[in-house]
């Protein structure tokens, strides 16, 4: 992949379309990779690894893979190593650490369905921040697409939602997860202006890993899996869900708007439901299938359009 810092001729219309198609493919691939992470988390917990420790291993074990990818990426572009710890990359790491921490605490203090539902509100925060702070114009198609995705998300997991005042704190932590993840999209897009996808993902992962290790130690989480299956689950979560999922998301954010890319969280929900159906035998209902269709329709409506020709 060409580094964003290298001068190159203006892209022709076919080149731009090809780049956009590649970015969309990366977005879908990243969603599928991130969507299977709950299965790995469950397997790691069965092997005795604490929730914060599994989040740490998810990031830390990916660092060698991400560094090797960064060097290959820059060598293919004919450029030297790019700046690693730029300000947007460090901010991205802090935000991703907050996302994972609030997510795990939310799961512990409310139902998984409630935590997932509130986490899927991330695109709302991306839209609000982009409009109110960055002063970006938000297309009507984006607003319609986000609304359809939210309706689809409710249909996909709404049957499991619970209203329980005793679990209000966990629900609020789920909402905080969405805020951190939403701002993460904007920060990664800013970081991509300075370096390639792998270099950015490596940098933010270093920051996130340090924070998660400290939290895991303070929480007294068991760090080491008791079984070989647990170790393989940690490797799978790290190499597939993080290096693959977050890395491909960084690729997409180099070409696609953060507002549109944030809809990937709904693709994650679809992927998670399909994986649960295939691997765990959790059958999909008619409402869930309809929810998945609404999400796909919303993403199609919100898709980036070609710029008008002068």
From TrEMBL:
<dbReference type="InterPro" id="IPR037185">
    <property type="entry name" value="EmrE-like"/>
</dbReference>
<feature type="domain" description="EamA">
    <location>
        <begin position="169"/>
        <end position="301"/>
    </location>
</feature>
<feature type="transmembrane region" description="Helical">
    <location>
        <begin position="21"/>
        <end position="43"/>
    </location>
</feature>
<feature type="transmembrane region" description="Helical">
    <location>
        <begin position="286"/>
        <end position="302"/>
    </location>
</feature>
<feature type="transmembrane region" description="Helical">
    <location>
        <begin position="231"/>
        <end position="251"/>
    </location>
</feature>
<feature type="transmembrane region" description="Helical">
    <location>
        <begin position="141"/>
        <end position="160"/>
    </location>
</feature>
<dbReference type="InterPro" id="IPR000620">
    <property type="entry name" value="EamA_dom"/>
</dbReference>
<keyword id="KW-0812">Transmembrane</keyword>
<keyword id="KW-1133">Transmembrane helix</keyword>
<feature type="transmembrane region" description="Helical">
    <location>
        <begin position="258"/>
        <end position="280"/>
    </location>
</feature>
<dbReference type="Pfam" id="PF00892">
    <property type="entry name" value="EamA"/>
</dbReference>
<dbReference type="GO" id="GO:0016020">
    <property type="term" value="C:membrane"/>
</dbReference>
<feature type="transmembrane region" description="Helical">
    <location>
        <begin position="111"/>
        <end position="134"/>
    </location>
</feature>
<feature type="transmembrane region" description="Helical">
    <location>
        <begin position="84"/>
        <end position="105"/>
    </location>
</feature>
<feature type="transmembrane region" description="Helical">
    <location>
        <begin position="55"/>
        <end position="72"/>
    </location>
</feature>
<keyword id="KW-0472">Membrane</keyword>
<protein>
    <submittedName>
        <fullName>EamA/RhaT family transporter</fullName>
    </submittedName>
</protein>
<feature type="transmembrane region" description="Helical">
    <location>
        <begin position="200"/>
        <end position="219"/>
    </location>
</feature>
<feature type="domain" description="EamA">
    <location>
        <begin position="25"/>
        <end position="153"/>
    </location>
</feature>
<feature type="transmembrane region" description="Helical">
    <location>
        <begin position="172"/>
        <end position="188"/>
    </location>
</feature>
């Amino acid at each position: 992949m060409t580094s964003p810092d290298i001068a190159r001729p203006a892209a022709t219309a076919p080149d731009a379309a090809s780049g956009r198609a590649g970015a969309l493919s990366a977005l879908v691939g990243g969603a599928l990779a991130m969507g299977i992470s709950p299965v790995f988390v469950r397997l790691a917990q069965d092997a005795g690894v604490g929730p914060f420790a599994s989040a740490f291993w998810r990031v830390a074990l990916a660092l060698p893979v991400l560094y090797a990818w960064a060097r290959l990426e820059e060598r293919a572009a004919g450029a030297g190593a790019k700046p690693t710890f730029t300000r947007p990359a460090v901010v991205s790491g802090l935000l991703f650490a907050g996302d994972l921490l609030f997510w795990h605490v939310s799961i512990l203090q409310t139902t998984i369905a409630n935590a997932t539902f509130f986490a899927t509100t991330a695109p709302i925060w991306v839209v609000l921040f982009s409009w109110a702070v960055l002063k970006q114009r938000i297309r009507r198609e984006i607003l319609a697409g986000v609304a359809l995705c939210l309706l689809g998300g409710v249909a996909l997991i709404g049957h499991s939602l619970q209203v329980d005042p005793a679990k209000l704190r966990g629900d609020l932590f789920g909402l905080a997860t969405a805020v951190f993840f939403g701002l993460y999209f904007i920060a990664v897009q800013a970081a991509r202006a300075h370096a390639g996808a792998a270099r950015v993902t490596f940098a933010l992962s270093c920051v996130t890993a340090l924070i998660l290790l400290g939290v895991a130690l303070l929480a007294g989480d068991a760090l080491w899996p008791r079984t070989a299956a647990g170790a393989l689950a940690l490797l799978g979560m790290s190499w597939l869900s993080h290096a693959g999922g977050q890395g491909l998301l960084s690729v997409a954010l180099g070409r696609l708007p953060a507002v549109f890319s944030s809809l990937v969280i709904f693709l994650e929900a679809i992927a998670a439901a399909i994986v649960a159906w295939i691997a765990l035998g959790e059958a999909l209902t008619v409402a869930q299938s309809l929810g998945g269709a609404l999400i796909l329709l919303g993403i199609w409506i919100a898709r980036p359009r070609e710029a008008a020709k002068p």
